[in-house]
Amino acid sequence: MSLLLRCFCRASHLPSLAMIGLILATSIAISADPPLGLPSVPVPSDNPMTAEKITLGKQLYFDGRLSADNKVSCASCHDPAKGFSNGDRFATGVEGKKGGRSAPTVINTAYGSLQFWDGRAKTLEDQALGPIQNPIEMNMTLDAVIKKLNGIDGYKTQFKKVFGTDVTSDGIAKAIAAYERTVISGNAPYDKFKAGDTKALSEAAQRGQKLFFGKAHCSACHAGPNFSDNSFHNVGVGMDKKDFDKGRAEISKLSGDTGAFKTPTLREIAKSGPYFHDGSAKTLEEVVDHYLKGGIPNEWLDEEIFNIKIAPGEKADLVKFMTEGLSSPDYPDHKAPELPK
Ligand code: HEC
Ligand code: HEC
Hints:
The protein contains 12 helices and 4 strands; from the N terminus they run αββααααααααβαβαα. The chain has 341 residues and is mainly α. It has 2 domains: 3-180, Cytochrome c-like domain (Cytochrome Bc1 Complex, Chain D, domain 2), CATH 1.10.760.10; 189-325, Cytochrome Bc1 Complex, Chain D, domain 2 (Orthogonal Bundle). The strands form 2 sheets. It has a two-stranded antiparallel sheet with strand order 1-2. Strand 1 (22-23) and strand 2 form a beta hairpin. Bound molecules: heme C (2 copies). One heme C binds at residues 216-218, 220-222, 233, 235, 237, 261, 263-264, 266, 269, 272, 275-277, 284, 287-288, 291, 302, 304-305, 318.
């Protein structure tokens, strides 16, 4: 087994894989340890992780040919160099078209029980085909993308090997989702501190941690190993606009969900600004200011959001906890692979 795992890692150039609980195509479970602080990544039984599938999914993730103008890939908006987001307020798709929401990070989204700011996709497999067909993102029909990829020998042979078929939309979704399950960040200073290494966090970050879990009330929603309760809240962002984004309510049809969005992970948060679903906060200081004043008042505001009084120095400590405590030395700094011809 250990030999298998070693080959696996070399083939995909992803050493962190050894840490993820993997299930091989042969359905032999390998119980390898996940990174410190995180549970094993949940893997659906109909899409087991294999080295070849992850390699294929990574190519598709970085390949602009999945878009109408051959230029926009998943990595254009979820760029490893920008915290797997895009560094802009809004996402920019084909021909420079812009949407109204910011690109969330892909890091640890494998732990999410629902995908998108409003949770409209249940799994990463369900999610993956959305942006390809979105007219302001990659703007392709599935038929067109399947035809295009079947015309590339390197893809055709890999799909045969991995799925036993030509290129299909089901295979595209599964391969990309399998790759996304390797975009993981744990083993941060916060995790080491929690595991007993008292030197892992600076004094300021330790003070910030106390605030985060105490007086500042952040862990009411940013809870658990991935700092998300996987739930939806109106924290009073963008609610002063006349035509504000209704968020989760558009999907659930519950008026109580108006202006509610999914609680995002805070892991690697230092890298993925600007922040919030509308990218309205440029810095983490601005995010904290937003919470301290109790968000933008509105009738659907979550009851856990209220005016909080902390000293100016404490504000800096809170930011320090997030930037220092939640940035891992094992950041998944993936580079674009060579693409099939
Ligand atoms: C033009 C920019 C753009 C491109 C290209 C793009 N995305 Fe996204 N992605 C976004 C935006 C914006 C959202 C949030 C949309 C929303 O919630 O309504 C998002 C959401 C997501 C999410 C949900 C994350 C979460 O925490 O809920 C995942 C996963 C994701 N994208 C993966 C992909 C994959 C895989 C591809 C390529 C097939 C891709 N994206 C292409 C902009 C983009
Ligand atoms: C009531 C639940 C709740 C509480 C309490 C809460 N958050 Fe959030 N947080 C969310 C939700 C939901 C979002 C997304 C909101 C949006 O974009 O409209 C979010 C977004 C964020 C973001 C932006 C993440 C990104 O990727 O854009 C940061 C940073 C953040 N919160 C930090 C904090 C801090 C620090 C505190 C404590 C001072 C806190 N949160 C308290 C639910 C909460």
